[in-house]
Amino acid sequence: MSPLLAVDNLSKLYGARVGCREVSFALWPGEVLAIAGESGSGKTTLLRCLSGHVPASSGKVHYTLRDGRSVALDEMSEAERRLLMRTDWGFVHQDARDGLRMGVSAGANVGERMMAVGERHYGRIRATATDWLKRVEIAEDRIDDSPWSYSGGMRQRLQIARNLVTSPRLVFMDEPTGGLDVSVQARLLDLIRGLVKRLDLAAIVVTHDLAVARLLSSRMMVMQQGQVIEEGLTDQILEDPQAPYTQLLVSSVLQV
Amino acid sequence: MNAPAYNFAYLNEQTKRMIRRAILKAIAIPGYQAPFASREMPMPYGWGTGGVQVTASVLTPEDTLKVIDQGADDTTNAVSIRKFFVKTAGVATTEKTEEASVIQTRHRIPETPLTEDQILVFQVPIPEPLRFLEPRETETRTMHALEEYGVMHVKLYEDIAQYGEIATTYAYPARVAERYVFDPSPIPKFDNPKLDGCPALQLFGAGREKRIYAVPPYTRVKSLDFEDHPFEVQRWDQSCALCGTRESFLDEIVMDDHGTRMFVCSDTDFCAKTRGER
Lengths: 256, 278
Prior knowledge:
Chain A is of the alpha/beta class. In chain A, 39% of the residues lie in helices and 25% in strands.
């Protein structure tokens, strides 16, 4: 078996400023990797490089397609990369408004990816959209409502449904629970965990919240000033942090 | 009274050359929006500055021009554009569809079938069919280049979800020659089937947006739809109150303050012909 995503010495520089530096790791099918670190440590930059939203300054990202071929992201044509983004990949934004089409109804939001890959049967699109809304615990009768009328937690769940409708193999999540209150966070995490398990998804979750990493991921990386300073099994890192910065991070978590 | 201060058909020859090049490009790539250096015309944007520039560039002294607005020859927009070309080009004009060699139109295609010897020029306000769903021009260009048209169906989906049917009745998006999705200008969708395989050359000019596109003669134009919600045109229970036809696009006219209504052909020339009044 080959890794789904192989990252080799990836760096992103903004002029003299460092976004992220010399990051290497492999992500295996069905694995959830958390990237933790404080604000400005390069987590989101790394995620945006990995998902092809911004070009990296140096280094390579290889992705294994469904047919087993391995492709380098920067060598793909724009058409291939965009097709990959709306079929094999998903991207869950921190702010649901960035990931949703706010001007159209929830059903159209879920159906958009199906239509983008050529589905032209209204009945089937609607049935699938209804099914997905149920799976993310949104009431069926809200299907024709605008996302503007949804609460923050519902928007986030709608965004997840919209991404998962084409059964992707890899989902990028940028602070999926950011900006939500704790009880909503807990339910959302529960939902994401269930979906990831059931659909055998691989995911990269960027978070500053160690609890999110603990609940969702099996492996994690800790970043500081653009570099990965520690990586390993999530439980191991959280129970027995080695790097001084990780120790600080773990001990800073509020205990209630 | 051909004012000698003007070049033939108002625009100077270099400008017409530039516009003709854009037209040729547009014909070579059916449905593609070719950019052109739109000129300031002596009329406001929204009055058909794009269509007027295209007409000025294809017009020859031997041409016979017909101008219609919403199907009618006698409305303000049609009258002023016709006068403009009579003054600046001195060409013959007509109201009879079959006698015209160039027809400039706003919001309709004539009911009388067109022929290979005719050119139909449309006035276009917003050439980009993806604009209301994607405001970024860089993104819509990429979407056209990569044929990413799924989002067009999102709009149709939204119609069915909200109204139970595809409620878009004008500027109905269609695909030209199985490649580019285009906006056929705000013609009623009743006219969309006439675009398909039309023997006449169809040119579209958008002055403010600086785009020209074309449907060459006998080109396939397919209106977008869903398998279980196929494309349909408007139908009326009434026939035209003046000529009695059931085949044409009807305008609803309110007659008094008590809600009396009258349905008449929007194409005035077609209506007169059916009545035998010309």
